[in-house]
């Protein structure tokens, strides 16, 4: 395996931190009044620009896995590594969140505990954002199948995503649709395979192409916000057009920022911890329809997750921290 350059490694780490902060914004409570300042901020950022965050993580995960595909015993090593880096944090933090949100001990029977930790297959896990981890574990398990004829697989998964999103909008309550959406995340498999492809092919993006992608994504977003503000239900397939274009622009045009490792190392803790802030945030009387309330809610979730991350690293022994956060 050829090592990646320090510049590329720094770029990935910095953008991963930015995307972790985007994930926090997605989970700020949705304003109730269409057309309010908070609603526009939510529609443009939380359910607009920030939707590229998890696809970015899938691409990077596929990229790093794909670099080992030619090694002997790569599959066994990949599974072993993901048990530590993904499965253990998934179990630990889902257990913590479920316990904190289920203080009635009458609910603590074996069935509820197992479902609370592992997650309901037809919906999100207890700790909502960890659906990404659950789906990524499945993608890694399927990687021997996905890694054959990558370009064909990439095109195939994109087509599957199109048809699946159309079908899921048409009949969202069908159990098989929920299983494929929430557990297998079929709509995101394309991004993971894209990462596998990028690990093998050096696809250069020109400045002009990135600017065209940014302009196209901007137009799509404007139309999406406009029609939503008029009460129209936008088909989910718009994301499959918007996210790839925005990801191209994000990678190429986002300013290069040299972040210290102490900062970028907080990306995964922020991803895991920010959802706990909702336990407190839902008790606060914030008006998310106002710009102040919406931005204030985001600031509280981000700052509190940062503070808890720093506090954990100060108090707990390094071995426990490494165990909880998958060696990070």
**How many β-strand stretches?**
0
Taking the alpha carbons of the first and last residues, their distance comes to 22 Å
Mean pLDDT metric: 92
Indicate how many domains the architecture comprises. 1
- The residue fraction in helices comes out at 55-70%
SS-derived structural category = mainly alpha
SS element count, helices: 17
Rg (C-alpha, Å): 20 Å
Task: Catalogue the unreliable spans.
Answer: none
Largest sheet: none
User: What overall form do the CA principal axes indicate?
Assistant: globular
Helix-strand pattern = HHHHHHHHHHHHHHHHH
Approximately what portion of the residues adopt beta-strand conformation?
A: under 5%
Mind explaining what this structure looks like?
The chain is mostly helical and 328 residues long. It has one domain. The protein contains 17 helices and no strands. The chain has helices at residues 6-26, 37-46, 53-66, 74-101, 110-118, 131-141, 143-146, 150-170, 175-183, 189-200, 207-229, 238-253, 261-264, 267-273, 277-281, 291-315, 318-324. The model has no long low-confidence stretch (mean pLDDT 92).
